[in-house]
Predict the 3D structure of the following.
Amino acid sequence: MAGGRSVIVTGAASGIGRAAALAFAAEGDRVVVADLDAEGAAAVVREVERAGGTAVAVTGDLSEQAVVDRVAATAVERFGGVDVLVNNAGIMDRMSAPADVSDAEWERVIRVNLTAPFLLTRAVLPHMLAAGRGAIVNTASEAALRGSAAGAAYTASKHGVVGLTKSLAVMYRGQGIRANAICPGGTATAISMDADRSAHGPATIAPHFVNLGRVSRPEEQAAAILFLASDAASNINGAVLPVDDGWSAV
């Protein structure tokens, strides 16, 4: 089914999430634009509406259950259900090596990158199960495929996203629900990193970025998300798709 779907995109105020929200809206889907950045989310809604589409913003910290509940409820109340969930919101770590990761860094990165997608997935699953269909697309990372693309916290969180994706695929394939993940390589987004480049983690990882390849545009990542959520991918379930100009093949 394409067009007219109810779609939730997290981290949709900028970068890959914004590109995905605009792409779904261009297909005729109705989009919940979820992000911590209220101003950015509102701007994306205006972009969608100027193009003749339908979108609504929900702002707040997706690591908080109350915000997750509000996002899911908005999709159901405004658009009649949840057909597609794109768990895209995420934050970087400080590229810290395991011995140098603080409790605060670990807990925040895991909470935003892994726990928040789990919470939102759990919130929308009853609606997808009731409808007998649904597509979930998670944004993992090149760091979900190797240990040399980020620090310990981010790497663990994105490996966890892949595990969650595969578990969903197995658990619910008999109920019409598909779950897949993309693994972006270098992408031109606003995601920020506060790292001491002389510290052990960043200094160790830096040489591995020589094989990064071309930095992608957010729209290229969004195209992969749109495909995995579409009927063209109806038999693709539990897949982990690198979108990285071959970085994972090096």
Summary: Helices lie at 15-26, 38-50, 65-79, 103-131, 152-172, 200-205, 218-228. The CA atoms of residues 145 and 159 lie 7 Å apart. The mean pLDDT is 95. The first helix runs from residue 15 to 26.
